[in-house]
Amino acid sequence: MYYIKVLLIIFTFAIVITIIGTAVDWFLALFDIPIVAMDVLSTSFFLFVIYVLPKLKLEKYIDNHVMYFSPFRFIGFIMFTVFFCVIGGVCAFLGLIDPLHLTQGRGGSGLHGYSMAILGIAIFLLSAKLLYFAIIKRWKLKHNKID
Predict the structure, then answer these.
(1) Residue 69 CB burial class (10 angstroms; 0-12, 13-18, ≥19)
(2) How many CB atoms sit inside 10 A of residue 118's CB?
(3) Residue ranges of the domains in the chain?
(4) Residue 87, C-beta contacts closer than 8 angstroms, at least 6 positions apart
């Protein structure tokens, strides 16, 4: 019964967000303002992530089990994190070369380039910080400098 309630809440929330997004898009298009509801939501969220990121203590979130990975598994972890750094860099680059270009999604709504640039910067910063702390913590473990 609990899962049905949760699914019903998620479904209701998705419908409400869609209705609000459509209304905001219609209102902003009425005045020819180059912004869509996804820009408002995503830009504010990712700016918040970029603002909070320096205050996060990511080294506490990297569990010790990551430090005891086998060499192949740790290399895979590093490759996966570097992949997200590259994805973030590509999103930032594509957003910065044409900031007012509207990228359309399958459902019709999309993001402008400036929102995609902020998304890419947030992904890049988070992945780079995670990668840095994972490598530093592993290095300290291997050199017996970890508490």
Answers:
(1) middle
(2) 24
(3) 1-33, 34-142
(4) 120, 123
